[in-house]
Every structure is written in structure tokens, then in C-alpha cells.
Amino acid sequence: MALHLREQEMSLREQEMSLREQEMSLREQEMSLREQEMSLRDIAKRLVITTGTENGQHPSPATVMRMLREHDEHTTAMETTG
């Protein structure tokens, strides 16, 4: 029983790592497209979700906006503390 729970925990950790990697990849793509001064809608059309239940779909413009805002907030926090 304990072995089965450990396997499930490892699987969940692997899934979480995969999702983090995907989000980082999407953020890198977003930043590149943002530098080209593309609209949120155009950025969302170019990005494709590669894992999970929304595999193969495009994120919404609202999701793109949230991710860009989070990136800006993180960057600003790093600049003020560092």
C-alpha cells in the first residue's frame, strides 16, 4: 500500500514538473512575441498548450495577459530587491 502511494506521489510530482516546464516555455514564447509588439489575441493564437486536458488548444487572451502581468510583477520585484 505504501509503495503504491509513493508511486502516485512521484507521478504527481512529475506531472507538476511537466506543467511548470510547459508554463516556462509558454512564457518564453510570450515574451518573444511581446517584444514584437503583437496583440494579446495574436500571441494567444500563436501559442499552443502541449500537455494536460487542454493539449493542442490555444490559451485565452486573458491567460496570456495574466502570465505577462505575473512576469512583469516578478521582474519588478527582482529589480527592487536586487
As residue ranges, the low-confidence spans are none
What's the shape? flat
Number of helices: 3
Provide the succession of SSEs: HHH
Could you describe the largest sheet, including whether it forms a barrel? none
- Give the total of domains: 1
What structural class do helix, strand and pairing data support?
Answer: mainly alpha
Task: Return Rg in Å.
Answer: 16 Å
Kindly describe this structure.
By secondary structure, this protein is mostly helical. It has one domain. 76% of the residues lie in helices and 0% in strands. It contains three helices and no strands. Helix 2 crosses helix 3. The mean pLDDT is 82.
Topology overview:
Blueprint: H1 2-35, H2 40-46, H3 61-81
Key terms:
3 helices, mainly alpha, 0% strand, 76% helix, 82 residues
Describe this structure in a few short sentences.
With 82 residues, this protein is mainly alpha-helical. It has one domain (2-81).
